[in-house]
């Protein structure tokens, strides 16, 4: 009886932390990399008969992006209602008529949160969600954007290590209703509206399996996934395996992982060995020592980029989606994830994780023995272009490390020397600009202050009309 009460309490805690109910009766399929995700999306788009909702942070104007654009345009010409939402920052650079051609084909296209006169800093919050839904029948929640980076150049190296490593899920059943409603939320924010007939109630969608799912739609300053990640770290009893593209954990989350590891939980973290932002590897590594000292095992992916955002705990609970383990994702962006409670799905996640570790390098503290069977070697270095959106979090890590060096409030490790070089370089450049070209510093500040002042006056005038 007591165990049953604890189970009910844990379920209620997850519902409160995530702000999302547990939806029963779903079929969920794990999809690894573009080789499994893109074909599933293509089949779903081709099967659409009523509507398509497609939301992505990035859609590149390259061979892959044009292929998906062609599919969406073809369905729109057939009479299917096609809505495409892209992030204004993420898709910046598509100036060659890419979206204009889609609109001309009948696709309703919207850019999320472009700069506005009345909100000088409003553009900071981005739509980092990645999803696709078709006819209220199939839904996809994923970490993948649309572009050649996820496909890779297989003539250069094995496909597994050349293409970006990423993860998504296919959902069929009542939970698709919540995926559609998450799309409607951001579509409405972007100035559109989704008809009621394209937002079926969960009860109107027949069961397709026996998997329990929560669809967690995050918005700025809300932080449901942050609360959930903290809760999972506190409740995990056997294992907690994480994969993250831009890990910059807060002190409270790092402490939660440390406490779990110190209490005997098998905590593992998989991060990229190289990143699409050159400084990101140094930023992530700078925060690893406290985790390693507590017994958390950390692995670096040996391929060109590990972009997945996943977690699996105790062989039962799992999370897949767009949220990275840093403050920008947790409380700054619009994000979308699914939390899945199912032993079969968790086993698939664990198998995928073990496979990834076989293509990774474990990071160990100097002088500490390496676990048997793990090869320690230098990951490949390189620079890729793609989804980032983590600038604020990286600057926070940079400022914390530089501040610690200046105030001597904590001991710095060798991994943070790169951050010291970056901090010194940025400060030297800023100092030189201030000395030799003071207007180069004063003018941007004056322009920003004038813009904010004008926007406040504009808003005050609009409010005075009510």
Shape: globular
**Helix share bin:** 40-55%
Strand content: 15-25%
Provide mean pLDDT, rounded: 84
Structural class of the helix and strand makeup?
A: alpha+beta
| Main sheet makeup | 15 strands, mixed
- What is the terminal-to-terminal distance? 57 Å
Task: Return residue spans where pLDDT drops below 50 for at least 5 consecutive residues.
Answer: 369-412
Total number of β-strand segments? Answer: 15
Query: What is the alpha-carbon Rg in Å?
Result: 23 Å
Query: Tally the helices: what do you get?
Result: 16
Across the major sheet, the strand order is: 4-3-2-5-6-7-1-8-14-13-12-9-10-11-15
Structure description:
By secondary structure, this protein is α+β, with helices and mostly antiparallel strands. It has 16 helices and 15 strands. Strands 4-3-2-5-6-7-1-8-14-13-12-9-10-11-15 form a 15-stranded mixed beta sheet, with helices on both faces. The N and C termini lie far apart (57 Å).
């Amino acid at each position: 009886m007591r165990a049953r009460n604890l189970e009910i309490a844990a379920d209620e805690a997850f519902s409160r932390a995530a702000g999302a109910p547990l939806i029963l009766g779903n079929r969920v399929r794990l999809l690894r990399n573009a080789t499994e995700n893109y074909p599933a999306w293509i089949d779903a788009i081709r099967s659409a008969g009523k509507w398509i909702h497609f939301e992505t942070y990035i859609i590149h104007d390259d061979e892959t992006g044009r292929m998906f654009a062609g599919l969406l345009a073809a369905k729109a010409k057939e009479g299917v209602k096609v809505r495409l939402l892209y992030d204004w920052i993420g898709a910046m650079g598509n100036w060659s008529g890419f979206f204009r051609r889609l609109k001309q084909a009948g696709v309703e296209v919207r850019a999320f949160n472009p700069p506005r006169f009345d909100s000088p800093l409003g553009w900071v919050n981005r739509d980092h969600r990645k999803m696709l839904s078709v006819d209220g029948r199939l839904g996809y929640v994923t970490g993948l954007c649309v572009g050649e980076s996820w496909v890779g150049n297989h003539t250069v190296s094995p496909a597994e290590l050349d293409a970006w490593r990423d993860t998504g899920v296919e959902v069929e059943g009542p939970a698709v209703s919540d995926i559609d409603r998450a799309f409607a939320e951001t579509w409405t924010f972007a100035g559109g509206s989704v008809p009621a007939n394209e937002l079926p109630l969960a009860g109107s969608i027949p069961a397709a399996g026996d998997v329990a799912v929560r669809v967690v739609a995050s918005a700025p300053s809300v932080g449901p996934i942050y609360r959930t990640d903290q809760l999972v770290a506190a409740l995990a009893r056997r294992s907690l395996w994480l994969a993250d593209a831009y890990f910059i954990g807060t002190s409270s989350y790092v402490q939660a992982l440390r406490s779990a590891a110190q209490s005997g939980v098998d905590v593992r973290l998989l991060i990229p060995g190289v990143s699409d932002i050159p400084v990101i590897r140094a930023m992530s590594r700078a925060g690893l020592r406290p985790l390693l000292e507590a017994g958390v095992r950390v692995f670096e992916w040996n391929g060109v980029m590990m972009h997945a955002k996943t977690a699996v705990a105790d062989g039962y609970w799992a999370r897949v989606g767009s949220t990275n383990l840093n403050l920008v994702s947790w409380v700054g962006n619009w994000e979308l994830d699914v939390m899945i409670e199912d032993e079969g799905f968790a086993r698939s996640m664990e198998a995928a994780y073990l496979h990834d570790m076989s293509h990774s390098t474990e990071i160990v503290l100097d002088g500490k023995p390496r676990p048997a069977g793990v090869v320690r070697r230098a990951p490949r270095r390189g620079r890729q272009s793609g989804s980032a959106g983590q600038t604020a979090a990286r600057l926070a890590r940079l400022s914390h490390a530089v501040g610690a060096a200046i105030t001597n409030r904590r001991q710095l490790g060798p991994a943070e020397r790169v951050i010291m070089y970056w901090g010194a370089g940025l400060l030297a450049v800023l100092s030189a600009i201030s000395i030799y070209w003071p207007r180069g510093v004063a003018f941007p500040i004056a322009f920003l202050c004038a813009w904010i002042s004008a926007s406040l006056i504009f808003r005050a005038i609009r409010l005075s009309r009510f």
